């Protein structure tokens, strides 16, 4: 059985804890400067619900990142940036006027090789739950795998949530946007041995 690495689980759990603290810090800086600022996922009105397609929330960090021009979506529902898909993202909404990032994507899926030309299905092969097909990402299968098949890792890894993430590693979009004309140099500490 394929399972996420301990490092991945730590990054998922502790990385999001860092993200929460960073959001709050940015809000405090901006409000201290006299601007309105809020981190929507930290508010009492943030919620996660479910329907026949699986869980969904009333605020999506990935969708905000797309709206801000920072990348596009993948077949696995991940978010492909110029630095790749294996990341965490967060947002703060403010009334501070800033220069907008230039939108480089033609459509919401233009950084995923599968949607561009059908040449990549690496995330399908990487998914141990069979939750990714050419028709997209089955959230219910994905969540069941994380809950039922690898749920034991919560205790093993001593985290509150593991996340699987195997569809985001060992794929062409792991560390860069595979549709970019020129690869972005790797950050030394992230380089593969």
What does this structure look like?
The protein has 193 residues and is of the alpha+beta class. It has one domain. It contains 6 helices and 8 strands, in the order H-E-E-E-H-E-E-E-H-H-E-E-H-H. Strand 4 and strand 5 form a beta hairpin. It is globular, with a radius of gyration of 17 Å. The model is unreliable at 189-193 (pLDDT under 50).
**Spatial strand order of the main sheet:** 1-6
Regions with little confidence, pLDDT below 50 for 5+ residues: 189-193
Instruction: Give the fraction of residues assigned to helices.
Output: 25-40%
- Number of spatially distinct domains: 1
- The SSE string, one letter per element, is HEEEHEEEHHEEHH
Count of helices?
A: 6
List the defining traits of the structure above.
193 residues; alpha+beta; two-stranded antiparallel sheet; 8 strands; 10% strand; disordered C terminus
What's this, in brief?
The protein is of the alpha+beta class and 193 residues long.
């Amino acid at each position: 059985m394929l399972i996420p690495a301990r490092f991945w689980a730590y990054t998922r759990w502790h990385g999001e804890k860092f993200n929460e603290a960073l959001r709050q810090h940015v809000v405090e800086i901006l409000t201290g400067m006299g601007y309105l600022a809020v981190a929507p996922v930290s508010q009492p009105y943030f919620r996660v619900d479910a329907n026949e397609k699986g869980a969904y929330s009333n605020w999506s960090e990935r969708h905000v990142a797309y709206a801000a021009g920072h990348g596009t979506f993948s077949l696995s529902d991940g978010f492909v940036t110029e630095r790749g898909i294996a990341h965490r993202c967060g947002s703060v909404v403010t009334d501070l006027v800033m220069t907008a990032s230039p939108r480089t994507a033609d459509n919401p899926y233009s950084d995923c090789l599968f949607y561009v030309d059908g040449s990549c299905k690496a995330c399908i092969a990487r998914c141990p739950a069979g939750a990714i097909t050419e028709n997209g990402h089955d959230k219910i299968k994905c969540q069941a795998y994380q809950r039922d098949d690898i749920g034991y890792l919560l205790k093993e890894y001593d985290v509150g949530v593991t996340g699987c993430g195997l569809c985001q590693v060992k794929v062409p979009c792991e560390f860069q946007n595979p549709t970019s004309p020129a690869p972005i140099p790797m950050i030394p500490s992230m380089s593969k041995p």
